[in-house]
Amino acid sequence: MFIYKCLLCGYELYYEKEPENVICPKCNKVMFRIKPPMKLGEILVLLGLIDEEKIEKALNIQKKINYHYPIGKILVKLGLLTSNQLYRALIIQRKALLGTKL
Ligand SMILES: [Zn+2]
C-alpha cells in the first residue's frame, strides 16, 4: 500500500501499486508519499532540484565515507545543491513524516 498526502490541504490518496507523480485533486499541487516515507533524494528529484544521477553519485560517496553521514550534506558539499534547497526539502520530509498516522 502506498499513501500520498497533499501537504497543503492534507488530502490523502491510497494506491496498491506505486504511481507516477500524484497531483492533489483539490490544490493541483504535487502530493508526497508518506507510506513508505520518501527518502530525501526522492523529494529532491520530485521538486526538480536535482536529477537521479547526482543522487546516485552522492549515495556512492556516502557508502565510502559513512553510511550515517546525511546525503543532503554531501550534495551541498559537492556543490550540487544549495543549503536553501536542502532546507526546503528537509522541511517537506519532516511534514510528510508528521503526516503519517499509521
Ligand atoms: Zn491539496
What does this 3D model show about the protein?
- By secondary structure, the protein is α+β, with helices and mostly antiparallel strands.
- The chain has four helices and three strands.
- It has a three-stranded antiparallel sheet with strand order 2-1-3.
- It binds zinc ion.
- Zinc ion binds next to loops.
Query: Could you give a short account of the major beta sheet?
Result: 3 strands, antiparallel
Mean pLDDT: 92
- Spans where pLDDT lies below 50 across 5 or more residues: none
Q: Can you give the helix content as a percent range?
A: 40-55%
Structural class designation:
alpha+beta
> What number of structural domains do the residues give?
1
- What's the β-strand tally? 3
Tell me the number of helical segments per DSSP (H or I, 4 or more residues long): 4
Strand order, biggest sheet? 2-1-3
Say which molecules are bound, naming each kind only once. zinc ion
Strand content: 5-15%
Report the order of strands and helices.
Answer: EEEHHHH
The global form is: elongated
Terminal CA distance reads 12 Å
Radius of gyration: 14 Å
